[in-house]
Amino acid sequence: xxxxxxxxxxxxxxxxxxxxxxxxxxxxEGTEVVEVVKTAIQHGYRSIDTAAVYKNEExxxxxxxxxxxxxxxxxxxxxxxxxxxxxxxxxRAFDETINxxxxxxxxxxxxxxxxxxxxxxxxxxxxxxxxxxxIRAIGVSNFQVHHLKDLISDxxxxxxxxxxxxxxxxxxxxxxxxxxxENIQLEAWSPLKQGQLLTDPILNEIAKKYNxxxxxVILRWDLQxxxxxxxxxxxxxxxxxxxxxxxxxxxxxxxxxINGLNKDERIGPNPDEFMVGFE
Length: 279
Prior knowledge:
Keywords: NADP, Oxidoreductase
InterPro entries: AKR, AKR5G, Aldo/ket_reductase_CS, NAD(P)_OxRdtase_dom_sf, NADP_OxRdtase_dom
Order of helices and strands: EEEHEHEHEHEHEHEHHEHH
CATH superfamily: NADP-dependent oxidoreductase domain
Strand order of the largest sheet: 3-4-5-6-7-8-9-10
GO molecular function, one term: oxidoreductase activity, acting on the CH-OH group of donors, NAD or NADP as acceptor
Organism: Halalkalibacter hemicellulosilyticusJCM 9152
Number of domains: 1
Protein name: Oxidoreductase
Number of helices: 10
């Protein structure tokens, strides 16, 4: 079990990825995102997750630069957006991302959504960028089991990561089992279900028992289930609190209780239906 904010899981290609990081979805480009990234790094975070569609890659790059932490100690993720899927378009999108971040390479690059019929071409572009040494690890986001099976059937390189909506109301049991079997690291976005889980009475009871917040209990549950997690916050106090989860462990019984909250309920779109940006 990870013991600190810098602890890592080893992806199937040997690259080490922090168990815990900062997500910057909906963090505003400019001063806000620059400060958030700097603050998180200052408090020990080493993993930052952005995406082309968040429109804040420049600020993320600026925050990284101003943090003063050596590049090789950080793990930076971005994602190719739906409208840039396809081989050539993905190569161009990657160049744009790298230029905005002002980095020489990415640690992880993901296909943001599966969409319908282009992800295999997109994946070929990711494989090329990976072989060229421009990305240390490649993966996908929001892929269901059938997407992964389809992709792997023609891929030279298996995805190292699958980042999906994951929280106590959406425990992704089938997907988690499949990813474990295939040695694909599962990663959680929206681990707190955009705050909706914070009022859950059962989670509040458990939190009291450990003298922790509900958010801390959920984030700890992620890690104990072997899932990398990247909560987002713009408040320094919450950035610090979210990461204060390495000094306690949920009991097997409490893990079971939280597992029992699953109702396969999403807050985000269903990947089989989400086609925004694919037109």
